[in-house]
Amino acid sequence: MRAKVYPTTLLFLLMVFAGPLSAQPKKVRFSVSAISIAEVPFKIAQVKGFYRDEGLDAEFIVIRGAVGMQALLGGSVDFTSASGSTIAAAVRGLPVKLVFIASAKPQFDLIAQREIRSVQDLKGKAVGISSRGGAVDLLTQLIVQKHGLVPNKDVISLVVGGQEDTVLALRTGRIAAALLTPPRPLILQREGFNRLAYSGDYLPTYASGGIGVTDEKIKTSPNDVLAFVKGSVRGLQIARQNRADAMKILSDYFSIKDQALSETFFDLYLSRLPVNGSADDAWMKGAIDFTQKSLGEIGKELPPSKVFDFSFVNKAARQ
Fold first, then answer.
1. pLDDT value at 43 more than 80
2. DSSP, residue by residue, 1-31
3. CA–CA separation, 247 and 224 (whole Å)
4. CA dist., res. 15 & res. 10, Å (int)
5. CATH number of 87's domain
6. How large a percentage of the chain has pLDDT more than 70?
7. How far apart are CA 302 and CA 289, in angstroms?
8. Residues 133, 281: one domain?
9. What is the pLDDT of residues 233-251, one digit of tens each?
10. H or E stretch including 169?
11. What's the CA dihedral at 155, 156, 157, 161 to 10 degrees?
12. How many domains does the chain have?
């Protein structure tokens, strides 16, 4: 005998099941440049479920900076952590904005072979870079210039690849020095390599990691942008306020088993964090100036509003 389903019963069933179905998190794709210290707030937010709290199912995809920007512009991803590429694209006039920064300073330390004690000792030697004209290349040139050396004359730049390739090139003696992000400098120092300089002492206005998004996304899906920024801001807050949780996530993310190394790494990370994921006008102008110089567009007046939009960070703080 077939059971009868009365209209009131059907309405009740629809009400029961419609809620969970409508509450399904929205899928968004986030390209990250590498497993790096700049991605820590995002990893914390992902592990702690902050993006899901905001109604998002965030998928992290490793895509190199420049390619990540192409993926963003092509719509293959919704957000990118490639802050340098986002700023450069916006300076060129492309319709993108940086809406959050994970670090207001560059994260790179200049690490050299055991016998090299100063930047001046690099004269006549090769330093490793990831690509020509990229952030690592430009920061390396800036540091050697500050010490009276001429880039690509006194010091030769050699393209060796990403961070892990660079570490290998150092250990095998292929290069004399290179800029590396934590925890790699800390590990190499334990092995006897020397730390010559911290890039943030030479360029204080530089974003390491962030959230890049297209103008179209800001216009058509502002709630998604706000939700992703809110989750990321919460990740940043956990890093500042909950040492135990943040350290556990950081150690797992980088596969660090040594407690002392983990402590040192985390303290270094804290010292380079922005206050809330945004920056003031002076910082924004400095970041634009550096990028313009790197692109050969010196002298072009460009307001920060063409490159940055920290209104979502401000909204997240108010909420």
1. yes
2. -PPP--HHHHHHHHHHHHHHHHTPPEEEEEE
3. 28
4. 9
5. 3.40.190.10
6. 92
7. 9
8. no
9. 999 999 989 999 999 999 9
10. helix 163-171
11. -120
12. 2
